[in-house]
Every structure is written in structure tokens, then in C-alpha cells.
């Protein structure tokens, strides 16, 4: 049976994307393009296929990727979806289709652009998330909740929430992605990711403000002017991460 060429329009979540893969195998569609809802530009001669997210279908595809390709490939796909790259969706789709044919060997086909791109996107996400686990700054608010603001290049909020829910499970906290207007809110047991208003305000305790001032003074005092290497600093800590770090404010 021939497939119907479509441009798939998905919600901004990995489950919606996995439903496109499901539709390819079980509903005879052939996505010639995949775009997030709100970012699709209509094209002549191509039908639009609006994906309705189905958790069961998405889980079926994810389990198949783990079983028929590998756990590592499933993680590549999840992380690649978080990348700030408009081409990532079609690359991921082609990667999965090839993976179902080649199994774990798919990751050896780096001469194929979509395999290499999926690897690069996944590693960029993992690398940025790893960097931020060391540079997130939590500050005490008047409500008793510890607040951390980030504005990463890639959408790494869920990775950071997983990390800190294990390592700061004794404390209520919020990690706020100000670039995407969403936050992970942890209540001491579990976290939930929710959208936030653009003008959300945070009020710190007097003790927190004092500690921040002391830390800025210490950071400035211990610096050795003659040994400052701004190029090395930028390589180790990109400028876009610094605006939420106390010592660089």
C-alpha cells in the first residue's frame, strides 16, 4: 500500500513526535517534513497531518526503539528532541527508521547526515545539561523555596529537574527557564514542569541578599588581575550562562 505524503504538525513534546513514527508504520503516512505547531509554513501539494498525542502509541514506539535498536539510541532520540535545531525532527525520524532496519549498528552510519546530526544534537543537549548541573545557582526566597533561573540554548529543563530531584530531594525548589517561560517545581517528593508568566517576580530573603553580596565581593577580591584570561573563561563558561550566576551579575 502506498503511503500518503504529509507534513506532520506536532505538539512540543517527545510523545507527539513518537506518534509520527507510529503513524508511519501503522497509518501509512510518509512525513516529508515535521514541524512544531505554530511554526509550520504551509506548502503547496502537501497535506497537513495534525498529530494527536497518544501516550500509548508513543510508549509503543519508545519501547520498540529500546528493544530493536538500543537503550543508547532511545536516549539519543530523547535528548536530540531537546536540541535548539529546526532540522532535528526529520533527522530523528530518519534515524529511527534506519535503526529499525539496522538495529544497534545504526550508530555506525555516521556518513549519513541524519545519523550524524542526531548524535551531535543529543551530545550538545547532554553537554549543556552537564555544564548547568555545576553552575545552577539556587537562592532562598521569602517563601522558603529555593529558586534558580536558567536560559539555556537547548531545552534541558527536564534533565536538570531529574538531576536535582535526586540530589536536592530534601528541599523545595524551582528551576526557571526564563527563555522558554517554563519551570520545574519540586515539592520535596516530585517535580512538575509548568508554564510561567513572562513577568514572574522573585523576592529573596535579606540573608540571601547578604550572602550574594559577600560572594560577589569574595569573587572580585580573589581575582588576580594579571592572570585573567577572558578567552579561556568564555571557552569554559559561555557568556549566555553567566547572567544568572551571582558572581557575574
Question: Could you give a quick summary of the protein structure above?
Answer:
This protein has 249 residues and is α/β, with parallel strands linked by helices. It folds into two domains: 4-127, no CATH class; 136-248, no CATH class.
Question: Within the largest sheet, what's the order of strands?
Answer: 4-5-6-7-8
User: What general outline do the C-alpha atoms trace?
Assistant: elongated
Q: Helical percent range?
A: 40-55%
Count of spatially separate domains: 2
Total DSSP helices: 9
The strand count comes to 8
Supply Rg.
21 Å
Please mark out the parts with pLDDT under 50 across 5 or more consecutive residues, or reply none. Answer: none
**What distance separates the N and C termini?**
61 Å
Q: H/E element string?
A: EHEEHHHHEEHEEEHHH
Mean pLDDT: 91
Strand content: 15-25%
Structural class: alpha/beta
Brief descriptors of the model:
single chain; alpha/beta; 5-stranded mixed sheet
Fold blueprint:
Elements: E1 4-10, H1 14-26, E2 29-36, E3 47-50, H2 55-69, H3 71-81, H4 88-102, H5 113-135, E4 139-140, E5 146-150, H6 157-167, E6 173-177, E7 182-186, E8 191-195, H7 206-222, H8 230-236, H9 239-242
Parallel strand pairs: 1-2, 1-3, 5-6
Antiparallel strand pairs: 4-5, 6-7, 7-8
Helix pairs in contact: 1-2, 2-3, 2-4, 3-4, 3-5, 4-5, 5-6
Any overview of this molecule?
The chain has helices spanning 14-26, 55-69, 71-81, 88-102, 113-135, 157-167, 206-222, 230-236, 239-242, and strands at 4-10, 29-36, 47-50, 139-140, 146-150, 173-177, 182-186, 191-195. The chain is an alpha/beta fold. It folds into two domains: 4-127, no CATH class; 136-248, no CATH class. The protein is elongated and about 70 Å long.
Amino acid at each position: 500500500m502506498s503511503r500518503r505524503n504529509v507534513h506532520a504538525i506536532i505538539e512540543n513534546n517527545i510523545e507527539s513526535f513518537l506518534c509520527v513514527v507510529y503513524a508511519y508504520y501503522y497509518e501509512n503516512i510518509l512525513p516529508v517534513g515535521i514541524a512544531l505547531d505554530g511554526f509550520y509554513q504551509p506548502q503547496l501539494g502537501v497535506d497537513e497531518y495534525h498529530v494527536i498525542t497518544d501516550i500509548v502509541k508513543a510508549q509503543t514506539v519508545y519501547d520498540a526503539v529500546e528493544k530493536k535498536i538500543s537503550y543508547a539510541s532511545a536516549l539519543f532520540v530523547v535528548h536530540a528532541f531537546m536540541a535548539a535545531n529546526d532540522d532535528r525532527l526529520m533527522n530523528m525520524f530518519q534515524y529511527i527508521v534506519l535503526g529499525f532496519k539496522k538495529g544497534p549498528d545504526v550508530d555506525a552510519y555516521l556518513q549519513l547526515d541524519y545519523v550524524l546530526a542526531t548524535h551531535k544534537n543529543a551530545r550538545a543537549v547532554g553537554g549543556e545539561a552537564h555544564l548547568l548541573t555545576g553552575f545552577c545557582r539556587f537562592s532562598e526566597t521569602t517563601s522558603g523555596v529555593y529558586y534558580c533561573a536558567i536560559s539555556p540554548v537547548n531545552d534541558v529543563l527536564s534533565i536538570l529537574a531529574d538531576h536535582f530531584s535526586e540530589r536536592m530531594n530534601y528541599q523545595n525548589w524551582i528551576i526557571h527557564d526564563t527563555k522558554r517561560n517554563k519551570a520545574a517545581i519540586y515539592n520535596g517528593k516530585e517535580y512538575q514542569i509548568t508554564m510561567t508568566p513572562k513577568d514572574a517576580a522573585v523576592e529573596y530573603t535579606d540573608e540571601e541578599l547578604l550572602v550574594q553580596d559577600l560572594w560577589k565581593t569574595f569573587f572580585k577580591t580573589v581575582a588576580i588581575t594579571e592572570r585573567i584570561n577572558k578567552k579561556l573563561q568564555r571557552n569554559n563558561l559561555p557568556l549566555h550562562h553567566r547572567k544568572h550566576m551571582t558572581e557575574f551579575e
